[in-house]
Design a protein that fits this description.
Length: 406
């Protein structure tokens, strides 16, 4: 097989645009020109559904079914890549791209890119900006620090605002395609501005972006749902809580590398797990709520450790905490409270229960008002309006829990 003119084709979705990064292959190594001619092909993929389809979806696509959206020169940038910017794209759409050099008959690709809404999917930079903003607007007792590092060596930061001795833990994005920073940081900012007196009695400890690297991949255009960290480890199976027991939830085996519920090669093998353990051990929250569900939102469906089932005192503590949280979403006297003993060995709730005996929950999906509209999150179609609605629910719920703990 002949060497190809394009060695790598990569892309990112940034602020409603798509940028393609084109690296020259071996046949062009001796071509030092700063300007080369390329053809760009694009096909909109309305059939792609996040959560149902994965990257294999793109393997079956043919560039001959795509449109040529650009033919002409591109200028080399950073002494390395040729970059093409596609501004004719729409938020929430998914596209397949191919790129050909000059007269090459077969292009490189396909490359799948989802155009994510930057207000719904915050990047690592935005998450840290929002944490800095929250830290600055709250004038009371506070702490902002690095609790560890990601697989790719990004800082995993968290903060505590308000009472450092009695706080609620809020942990986000243990699974990359799920929820946390957009809900918890917005809710905390509202509370910091409007309820400083409550914060002085019950603080908020927030670790919003655990699976930092793969969350960044999704925020910048990876079309498929990502669950694991870059090592292929499901972080919510990697904690020191009966880790050695193999689990078969979803019909998958947690001991097999390649399974999206893979527990890792040994307990707490992952840097992100270590950072989360450091956070929990340092702030010692009285309760932990972890954002799950999908695409930046989660509901008042509370899953706690399977091992806790039958512990009457623990269940009483759980109900005392999740009932006020759920009241932020609905009338619980009419609709009830959703508590399930559902989290597996190696999960954060299992770890919190085993080590500290404290209530801890993964927050999953539960319809609040409009089933069809709210289920858009499952296919990656969460809108800014839906996110704002859920921020309101979580804000009310967290305030209710804080007041119940005073």
């Amino acid at each position: 097989m002949a060497s190809k003119s394009i060695r790598f084709l990569r892309g990112r979705s940034e602020n409603g645009l798509v940028r393609l990064y084109i690296e020259r292959g071996y046949p062009l190594y001796n071509n030092n020109s700063d300007v080369l001619n390329f053809r760009i092909y694009r096909k909109k993929e309305d059939g792609f559904l996040q959560g149902s389809d994965y990257y294999e979806y793109f393997d079956a696509l043919n560039f001959k079914d795509a449109d040529i959206i650009y033919t002409g020169p591109l200028t080399k940038q950073d002494r390395y890549y040729f970059v093409y910017t596609d501004s004719d794209v729409k938020l929430l759409d998914v596209y397949a791209y191919w790129v050909a050099y000059d007269n090459d008959s077969v292009p490189a690709g396909p490359l799948g890119i989802a155009v994510r809404d930057p207000e719904v999917w915050w990047t690592y930079e935005r998450i840290n900006q929002e944490m800095n903003r929250l830290y600055n607007i709250y004038s009371g007792e506070k702490k902002f620090k690095t609790f560890g590092y990601s697989t790719r060596k990004k800082e995993i930061k968290g903060l505590v605002i308000g009472n450092q001795e009695k706080c609620i833990g809020l942990i986000g994005v243990v699974h990359a395609g799920e929820s946390g920073p957009e809900l918890f940081l917005k809710a905390a900012a509202h509370i910091a501005i409007n309820y400083p007196e409550v914060l002085s009695k019950v603080g908020l400890a927030i670790l919003p972006d655990v699976n930092t690297d793969c969350r960044e991949d999704m925020a910048t255009g990876t079309p498929q749902y990502l669950r694991c960290n870059p090592n292929g480890v499901d972080l919510n199976r990697n904690f020191d809580a009966n880790w050695e027991i193999i689990d078969y939830t979803y019909g998958l085996n947690t001991s097999i590398l390649g399974s999206i519920t893979y527990r890792g090669p040994f307990v707490e093998s992952e840097e992100e797990t270590k950072a989360t353990v450091n956070f929990i051990n340092t702030v010692k929250p009285k309760v932990i709520f972890c954002g799950h569900c999908l695409s930046s939102i989660c509901s008042d469906c509370f899953l706690t450790a399977k091992e806790a089932k039958g512990n009457v005192e623990y269940e009483k503590k759980c109900m005392e905490l999740i009932t006020p949280y759920s009241n932020g979403f609905r009338d619980t006297e009419k609709e009830g409270v959703a508590l399930h003993y559902g989290t597996t060995c190696g999960s954060i709730p299992a770890f919190a229960y085993k080590k500290y005996g404290i209530p801890a929950f993964d927050m999953e999906f539960r319809v609040v008002k409009d089933d069809k509209r709210e289920r858009e999150c499952i296919s990656g179609k969460t809108t800014k309006d839906l996110l704002d609605e859920y921020i309101g629910y979580h804000t009310a719920g967290i305030i209710n829990v804080m007041k119940s703990m005073v």
